[in-house]
Amino acid sequence: MRTLTLTTATTSPLRTETAAAPAPRPGLWLGPLLALAATAIWSGNFVIARHLGDAVAPVQTSFWRWVIALAAVAPFAARGLVRERQAIRRHAGLVVLAALLGVTLFNTLIYIAGQSTSATNLALIAAASPAAIAAFAFVGGERMTLPRATGMLIAFTGVVTLVSKGSITALLTMDFRAGDLWMLAAMATFAGYSALLKRKPAAISGTSFLLATFAAGTVMLAPFYAASVVLQGAFTPSSTTVGPLLYIGVASSAIAFYTWNKAVDLIGATRAGVIYYLQPVFVACVAHLAIGEHISLVQILCMATIVTGVALGAKR
């Protein structure tokens, strides 16, 4: 007697459906957006730093900036810092080095540089920051693509042309001073800090890392602040100093550093660094809106060049 064996289909109805397209990763758009926000906020910081230069000593400006930043971040990060204290202890070397570069040194060096060199020189040296960030990141293992390098070159050309107002003579006759060395040091510390962010352990949250570096950096600044008060005298708070200090403490430190750190975590230091080239564009716009500074056709063309370079270099 023959046995008839019936074979049933084993294919699940679910398997016959077309697989849904994977959801886009948030870093594709969120990372560049966060880097853009940090760059825009820092653009206001340069204007304010020049405003505070005559009223507050550089080290005192930097110290109070981070004290204010600590007060702004602590309510949101203190609980997480306590919860993650073991991880922070294990990686104390990384935290202290990031604090030294990004908090203690970077902005302090900019404030010192601003006292002994021109704004043009500061802007030109700052324009090299993305290249320095890319170099540090490359050493740390990040990949540099040809379109990204091309975009950086285009953006850098636009920045140099914008700062020099399109005059080769102005570039060749620039007077370099001691402050330029301070600015070069500031550029190197920021590049090192940005590249270091990719090494932040996943066990330490962004806000905890921010609070830990702010606290460590402020502690390292404290002796220099005390020396400045003894030698130069403490500044007197007034309506012309408190507002700017609050801006650089809350916006340029707490908010901008958080958004920048998150951006680097999402898209890497090199891509975030390319977006940093937009800073002179934001500075020009702020100066135009705040103090009515005229923007010429040459400046508009330079800004368009920078934006083109950034768009090319920041592409994934």
UniProtKB/TrEMBL annotation:
Residues 1-21 are annotated as: Disordered. The chain crosses the membrane at residues 63-82, 94-113, 119-139, 151-173, 179-197, 209-235, 241-260, 272-291, 297-314. It is found in: Cell membrane. Keywords: Cell membrane, Membrane, Transmembrane, Transmembrane helix. The keyword Calcium does not apply. InterPro entries: Diverse_Substrate_Transporter (IPR051258), EamA_dom (IPR000620), EmrE-like (IPR037185). Residues 30-163, 178-312 form the EamA domain. The keyword Cell membrane applies. One of its GO terms (cellular component) is plasma membrane. It is a multi-pass membrane protein. Belongs to the EamA transporter family. This is DMT family transporter.
